[in-house]
Amino acid sequence: MRTSARNQFWGRISKVRKGAVNAEVILDVPGIGAIAASITNASVEALGLHPGQEACAVIKASSVIIALADPPPRTSARNLFRGTVAQCVAGAVNGEVTLDLAEGKTITATITNESIHALGLRVGVPACALVKASSVIVAVND
After folding, report:
1. 103-130 b/e with 16+ CB inside 10 Å = b?
2. Which domains, from first to last, does the chain contain?
3. Residue 117 carries which DSSP code?
4. How far apart are CA 13 and CA 37, in angstroms?
5. What is the DSSP string of 21-87?
């Protein structure tokens, strides 16, 4: 699978819970834990998703919110990744912040330079990446 989204986390589906229109898919990723995705029931059927199946949580960098880790943020975002800033690159308006997570995994966010400065983000700072379940794309190999 090739995609322009740099945040890709492979794991196994542990739960598929269907609602009236959408389903909650929980993907267990080694070293990261559970990642929740909210997708349509039609997508669950089209992909043939079921517990035990290998799948990938794909997250665009523009869908990742960065917060300081201390104190831990209270948020409605289902997915919270704790890590340490590994790279912080400012651009003309936006910058990229990459957090080191467990087991050599990383997550990258595209945020404004103003936010980078306001949060005091720099290499070594503990931070969290927040992602709404509706911003997680589920992919499988055919």
Report:
1. eebebbbbbeeebbeebebeeebebbbb
2. 7-60+134-139 (2.40.50.100), 61-131 (2.40.50.100)
3. H
4. 11
5. SEEEEEEEETTTEEEEEEEEHHHHHHHT--TT-EEEEEE-GGG-EEEESSSPPP-S-SEEEEEEEEE
pLDDT tens across the length of the chain (142 residues): 788 899 999 999 999 999 999 999 999 999 999 999 999 999 999 999 999 999 999 999 999 999 999 887 889 999 999 999 999 999 999 999 999 999 999 999 999 999 999 999 999 999 999 999 999 999 999 8
Distance in angstroms (rounded) separating the CA atoms of residues 63 and 2: 19
**Residues making up the chain, counted from first to last:** 142
Whether 132 and 86 have beta carbons less than 8 Å apart is answered as no
> Residue 106 is inside which H or E element, if any?
strand 106-112
| Cβ count near 69 (within 10 Å) | 17
Q: Cα separations (Å) of 21 from 10, 26, 39, 40, 48?
A: 25, 17, 9, 6, 16
